[in-house]
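Fold this complex.
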Amino acid sequence: MTEATAPTPEVLEAVQRDFSGQLADAGRDVDELQRIRSAFFGPKGRLTLLLKSVGQLPPEARRDAGRLTNEVKRSLEGALMEVLDATAAEAREKELRKGRLDLSLPGRRAIPKGSLHPVTQINNEMVDIFARMGFDVAGGPEVETDWHNFGALNFPDDHPARDMQDTFFVRPPDDRPAGSLVLRTHTSPVQIRAMLAQGAPIRIVAPGRVYRCDSDPTHSPMFHQIEGLWVDEGVSMAHLRGVLTGFINALFGERGVRLRPSFFPFVEPGVEVDLECVFCDGAGCNVCKQTGWMEILGAGMVHPNVLKSCGIDAEKYTGFAFGLGIDRVAMLRWAIDDLAHMFRSDARFLSQIRGI
Amino acid sequence: MKASLKWIKEILPSLKAAPAAIEKRFNAVGLEVEAVERQAEPLDGVIVGEVKKLAPHPDADKLRVAAVFDGEKTHQVVCGAPNVKEGQRVAFAPAGLTLANGVTLEQRKIRGVESSGMICSEAELGISDEHEGILVTKPRARAGTALSKVEALDDVVLELGVTPNRPDVLSHFGLARELSAMFGLERPKASVRVRESGGDAKTHAKVSIDDKRCEKFTGRVLLGVKVGPSPTWVKRRLKQLGIRSISNVVDATNIALMELGHPLHAYDLHKVAGQKLVARAAKDGEKVTLLDGSVKTLVADDLVIADDSGPVGLAGVMGGLDSEVTDATVDILLEAAVFDPKSVRQSARRHGLHTEASHRFERGVDTEMVETALDRCAQLIVELAGGQVLKGRLVDTKGKRKPIVAPIRPERASMLIGRPFDKKEVKAALTALGLRAVKNPAAAKGKKKAKKKDLYADALFFEVPSWRLDLSLEEDLIEEVGRLYGYDNIPAIMPPGRREPFTEAPKRLAERDVREILAHEGYGECISLAFDAEHDAEAMGLDLAQAVTLANPLGEESRVMRMSLVPALLRAARLNQDNLPSVTDLALFEVGKTFAWAKPAGELPKEALRIGLLLRGNRAPVSWTEKGTPVDAFDLKGSIEAVLEHYRVEGVRWLAHEVAWLHPRSATRIDHDGRTLGLFGELHPAVAEKYGLEGAPAFVAQLELDAIVKVAGARARFVPLPKLPPAQRDLSFFVSEDVAADTVLATIRGAAGPQLERVELFDVYVGKGVPEGQKSLAVALVFRAPDRTLTDSEVDGAQKTIIAALEGELSARVRAG
Ligand SMILES: [Zn+2]
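Structure:
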């Protein structure tokens, strides 16, 4: 079948009608649509031939005829492509919905996750808070001389103040007297070492393991403390209060802080710092024995005798020191009910609070 | 220290504050309230009952059946007390009530007779030790009224945490004195007037001091006392404070102690040989039998109280059994003395004792309170046990202490506390606490020696009262001013910025980095107690001569400070293996110190910061994607490499090694220039057996973190990205199984020249198709020049050189390339 006639408007209209009819009949049948494509736009397609026939027209008629034919071709071709694209999209949509994965199955882990110990996590958090306030980190030995652990910290020999800390004694390997070496009972000897090495002004925190020879549900023979020390000109208890309030707010969120007078030989005045109970927000509960407060740290203004034993002018410089148990804070943070879990290395415990 | 608020208020009648306010104030001034006992609480529901009728029990001689009226109705109660009588008002606990001791009363039959409720003794109600008979209350009391009301059992007892620097508040008088300052009341006075009669005490007995560790020794003689049980009020008061009632005389010494804080001791005058007491040093080997029945062998450092025949007590700690007051005692020698705190503490510790007396003497007693306490006790004994107090005190003393004078500068107080205080405030606070303003002692003595600059020229000076043994420095006085002002009133001020210049920011601690790396590598961090047994060190093949040993370990299994991190990890593996269900897929690490004495020993042992690693079971838990691949030494090595990579450690060699705890097949020493960075490999099966590890083998490592940090490489530098494409060749060959992979790679690198950018070993195979004793290796070679594209013939040439080296140096046989 050939379109013998030239592409007159009538002929083109007839072609258009015919095309529309066929396209409507074809629906979403891809084969049929492809057939229509070649029947109208292929090398022997009706519109292709009509375009070719434009050349045979008299020159004055060519322009209009050519324009008209091209317009019709573009319009019809566009309509066909639209249907073809829509069909292809539908087919792909259908294909994509096949073989849905069951993503309720557990995900695949290349390496099973490890964990940081709760004590490490709290320790890092504390060190970071103090670092923001300009404190450097210091450390010291865990086996200490009696002088660093007690003497330089203003604990008199044979004084009941020493009973506050049950001490592990290390057998000297030489002829030093028994009792001259101890496992440090607190991180406070790091203060002494740091002040002897650096003098004043000084601003440090010292986290680490400490040892006391008792073992019961709330005491472990080894636990962790973080010690803080700030010595400079004009340091006051108001600064102590400011730093510790800031620290506690950073660690536990905004909550009440209470200072009570207390006694530690290496500070004067000495204070104990209470925190509004983290379980009842001060209303009173079993954990805080209905008081609404929990004791969180010990602190005070560095005793002049301590400054003097470190060669610091106690008239010119003042300072404060504080210490608190890291393990206890970790227990509060995650409601860990037994201190013994901390040091037992039970994988079921370690994997609960991963921290990475 | 337990304190009765009623008692305190008897001493300080002007104190009207409610218990809650007193509690709060105690906390605010540093006397921590650790517990509060409200006496009436456990008596809730116990009422006054009227015994309307009393009939014998039909089947039991010692029991009687009482009709007890509770104000509304009558209860039938079977009662065994001998002192119950018709018409009495008694303590009645109706059926259904739970008593203080936790027993819930039920209606039941006693020897066939219905009994509902109970007529109680004081002991059953927990108000005293009296258990012989029932509590009989006021005869006019109305049946049905709460017993606590009628008997005024509404006291509040506070358990106070008293820090060792405050012995002055270890008594009700001391607490009342402290409260008077806190509430702005007049300070109570401890004055006692004893009614003396009869002859002069000195003609009946003598006390003397023969050792300067006894500062003051006083006594009184009482004649004709009648030892017996104490009256109810004494029993109740002692019970509240947790003290056992013994006899009226002993109870009197305890009441005086709890009231005034000074320990006292009563001797049976006729059991004191020669009626003479002396405070003297013990003789080595001397023996004394103490009140608790224990026999102590004394040393010359002990201070004793002795009579003519020998020691009758350990001074300041405990009296002796032989001179004890008994029911037969009629005449008494009462002692009150002051002993050296250090001496008392040493004796108490030496003989394993801790008593109310030693507790106070160790901390220090008020030397001015001795006579008052002695008189108070003597008077109390007469009140409770009759008899007479002879005229005069027996006294020997080593002289009066000079009072301490301490300075305080208001501006220094203001600076230290962080809030301004003027002279008036300072003086008011310190005076309230019993300090006395005095003139500058230096000025008073007319010292004209002008020092460089007298810091205290404008200071205030205060004389410290005899009971405040904790005050001697300016800081001590400043603390008192601040304490009374209230620490909660101190402002919170954030410190100013750092004054010291900033240099390079401090490096993060190596232990922190390494923990994070290993956690990301899949290991769980452990923290274990740093104690091991000696056999742990032996299992690790370590020299026990270097062990850091505890003198007072908690047990045999924790006698030495750990010398290796490995035993704790093995115990952890065992613990997890024993869990239900058993956990054997494990990746654990610990970063911590190990301890050992150097040879010869330094001042302190060497503390080495180390990393322990343990790997066991499957690489990943068995799941729907993982069929379970067991870990091996290469998994462990990969984690070690991650650590070394972080520190950019280069030039590490992995050398075969021999050590007790590692399997010879894989024991490896990580060497850096002769320095050991760590040991690792499979756990030796014998060690696994010792620690009870069964099944999956364990792979363990111990790395030297200090050494690794020391050999850390320089900071990483960016290398410009190559602009030209590389040329790549693969090479596979057989080589003897003995030839280590790093030898092969080193040979390739050595032969190739600078154009070999990278060489990677991508296959190792032993088995079918590989000659016996050989292994097949395959490597990828990447060649590149920075400035031009390499030609094929250049790359071929380099490859040939490599092949020649492999064949020549390692007798390799190239299969393809
Ligand atoms: Zn609470």
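The mean pLDDT of chain B is 92.
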